[in-house]
Amino acid sequence: MSDFADRLTRWQRLHGRHDLPWQVADPYRVWLSEVMLQQTQVGTVIPYYQRFVTTFPDVATLAAAPLDEVLAHWAGLGYYSRARNLHAAAQKVMTYFGGVFPRSAQLLETLPGIGRSTSAAVAGFCYGERVAILDGNVKRVLSRWAGIAGFPGEKAVEKQLWALAESLLPVSETDMPAFTQGMMDLGATLCTRSKPQCQPCPLRGDCRARLEDCTAELPARKPKKSVPERETYMLLLRHQGRWLLQKRPPTGIWGGLWSLPETAAIDAGIAYCQDRLGLRVELAEALPELVHTFTHFRLTISPLVLDVLEMDARVAEDDHAWFTRSDALQAGIPTPVRKLLQLV
DNA sequence: AACTCGGGGTA
DNA sequence: TACCCAGAGTT
Q1: Where does the HhH-GPD domain lie (predicted)?
Q2: Which residue, A102, A130, A281, A343, could crosslink A107 as a Cys pair with Cβ 3.0–4.6 Å?
């Protein structure tokens, strides 16, 4: 019986995925894809990736672009700190590494947004460096193959999985790209969360979960937790065919994106318009509530359409701007804001 | 160690 | 509905 790495790399070369758009000899594109794929499925990423590389074909172009334009291409993909870190990392590659991508996982990990797994993926794919990845696919494959019962999000279990992943690396650097891709491909195509296809799996001979018939129980589910509820009003301020958007602070939810002004109550919203924005407004319409679910809370949005009757001559603050509906939809805006602007 | 950070796919 | 997805950064 050949060992784990041999079986996996052989399987990947014969039956793995070879036509993904980021399977190219370009560390910039591999890096971009790995960041986009953090906590995001392949099918979701592909159209974003295509648009992104068309606009930003290399690290120098990305580094020179305004952050707003980068965020506009990321809007809808989620986890917007990834876009900010990507932009900052591109600038660091230009200024600190002379425009050349770092050639080791250790150096790659010094770039913002690149952690242990992403650095290993880029180094393994592009340079053949013998470093292990540990993403959702690998956690599932290894917890089943080794019969590890604990929840992979738990520190001790994760540490065990990292050690196991490192112990299974191929001896030869030339096998690293196929091995790394094989771990991902196996988890994505055969060793799926539900109804895994064990029959064609190259690891079925010594897979503990398969031998003990417990693939459905591994990996362990995330412990349940109640999801907090929050609510807010979003103000759709209309003035001469334009809508007022407000740039969110760089950190926190929807960081750096253009969004709608929010208030906790209708009265406070009207007062906010008067006192802070210098607008005299009239309530035109209350749109139906919109429920938006995040990973860690649920947000109920009550949208209010307000007509602007009068505007102060005062200079608008930097973080506010009037957008046509069309321009707003092309800017970096959160998904629920996009849905609202498409209604009005 | 626990929490923050999106949005969509899927059973 | 609830969990998961080519995780990283902060507290």
Answers
A1: 36-189
A2: A102
